[in-house]
Amino acid sequence: AQTVTQSQPEMSVQEAETVTLSCTYDTSESDYYLFWYKQPPSRQMILVIRQEAYKQQNATENRFSVNFQKAAKSFSLKISDSQLGDAAMYFCAYRSVRNTPLVFGKGTRLSVIA
Amino acid sequence: DSGVTQTPKHLITATGQRVTLRCSPRSGDLSVYWYQQSLDQGLQFLIQYYNGEERAKGNILERFSAQQFPDLHSELNLSSLELGDSALYFCASSVDETSSKGQYFGPGTRLTVT
Description:
The structure holds two protein chains of two kinds.
Chain A: E1 3-5, E2 10-14, E3 19-21, E4 24-26, E5 32-39, E6 46-52, E7 60-61, E8 64-69, E9 74-79, E10 88-96, E11 103-104, E12 108-113
Parallel strand pairs in A: 2-12
Antiparallel strand pairs in A: 1-4, 3-9, 5-6, 5-10, 7-8, 8-9, 10-11, 10-12
Chain B: E1 5-7, E2 10-13, E3 19-24, E4 31-38, E5 42-50, E6 53-57, E7 64-68, E8 74-78, E9 87-94, E10 104-105, E11 109-113
Parallel strand pairs in B: 2-11
Antiparallel strand pairs in B: 1-3, 3-8, 4-5, 4-9, 5-6, 7-8, 9-10, 9-11
């Protein structure tokens, strides 16, 4: 079974600075999808960014980008120019191409300091 | 707004009771997923439906059941409720089973069992 590990339960960043959240996963599959979800205090789960494993190019969405290292099974999220609204729980998730449920990590709580 | 709606937002009930949570997927999405988020277990997949058919089951208790109706809305039924069933229940939808675009989550139903 696939597992997702987020080794940083909590992190903090100064406003306007850059922060990187770590995620590693374990799988024997070669094709899969990876996601980062944001859960602000409202508890809504918001899709931030996604990456297809067959793509070598790292995904980017505005201030959010990923560093996808397939061989190392690593999928980190970089947030640039951090804003107060970025404060939230961030979940890394894996999905097999064949099986559709998401497998989530335990999450990283990000605080943004003004 | 993800386009996925869930009702009710909050539910408080007593042990031994039965409740029904409702979900309407985004327009055009055929696949519906149910997830449970509790403090000690994190986000866990419960069950998936695709166009009215059950497709995958996760760690769903026998006391729980779900269905997807012809109009594609879904209901999650929880019976013989226990204190440990208190959690945030999310519904998510995706256009189909193999989409790489991710799953879009509703705002969740917070269930409190007293």
